[in-house]
């Protein structure tokens, strides 16, 4: 009989406890205390305290301190609840805090380790940035794509008018059309485009597999080595199936349009590494950019359904400045302050990435008297930052006027300095300099949200649906995951007037 057959769970627990005690005795003394946090249990730490990832309840037990600490099976987790603390740590000390942790499920098993948000700092990361600098690395380059944004949004108006009940599908289709046109030079099909559908599925998997604590294998990485048939290893089958979609998301559009991607590849002999860089950097742009934009634009329609007075104010401004004879354009942006404030409030009210992307600490650090050891994972609690009553008055209220100077008071903090994340990858955005893929991609998403807001409100009245004489009020209940979307809801969308109908039906071509 094998010795292993006599080993019980009690033996394992006792052995683990022994290892823990030995480690406690011989481990070196910390130079400073850890940030405050719940006490936790031996071995498992705060595993039992981890909250469910749900909109409005992100990491709730962490919110009493700007810096909060917990431990999961030996892994130190640092949560940042203050925008100032996040800036001081992730932006100003980015040399220590800009790396990414290994995510066993989403990164390794499902294959998203190749896209930019999860890519560790290094040569490959720099080469991604270099490729995109040629295409969208300056304001002048991005301005070239304004026409794409405007034409695709005009086409969106046509689709919504024809089939308002399919709003969510139209939002996703348009977001994908804009990004695919820019990333691959590919013009999507009018309906059921295979690349848009593929990106939607892949980014749904990305959101679900990279959320904190979504899969046990992220907490116990050794589980990644168990065979698929092993009891409780159903995640391995899911990972295998989703990995196929991830690979196809990057490969299919690349193979289809690589002959057209002259701008990106003309100066390179395409070695295997070069091809990997081109394929996955393009996938990073069209996958992530489409998903975040779709979330924000769908939230716009939810907000306008729930807050008709806000909608009327924006429409009055657009009517006065733009007039009834044309659609708004991105050139009108500086002339429409209330519409700008409305789009800004969408970014705060609907937090597209509630916990951002995790950062990995590459060296021991002391911040504000607290010890943050090398190997810690740092998570910015962006949802709480954008709903902190110390920063935003009545944060649950949808109020664009908070971003307009009024009665001698300045506007509240612009959420763009928070909602797009922190760190070396994004620090330059806060200096209004475009130097990386992340910054450029978010600039594109921001422009898409604004033009969707302005054009939609110029021609549509958005209101609650009435069924059997009863007005239906949608719930604010977005999905869980790294990227959060409003759950499907019903609303009524109608052309505001005969003139608005005429504007929608005009040709929308490049």
Description:
The chain starts with 8 loop residues before the first helix and ends in a 5-residue tail after the last helix. The protein has a single domain, classed as Cytochrome p450 (Orthogonal Bundle), CATH 1.10.630.10. It has helices at 9-26, 83-91, 94-97, 104-109, 123-136, 139-143, 146-162, 167-184, 194-210, 216-219, 234-257, 262-265, 272-306, 308-321, 337-349, 382-385, 416-419, 424-427, 437-459, 498-505; strands at residues 67-72, 75-80, 359-360, 365-367, 370-372, 377-380, 460-463, 465-467, 470-472, 492-495. The protein is an alpha+beta fold. Residues 1-7, 52-56 and 427-438 have low confidence and may be disordered. It is built from 20 helices and ten strands. 44% of the residues are buried. The strands form four sheets. A four-stranded mixed beta sheet has the order 1-2-6-3. A two-stranded antiparallel ribbon has the order 4-5. Helix 8 (167-184) crosses helix 9.
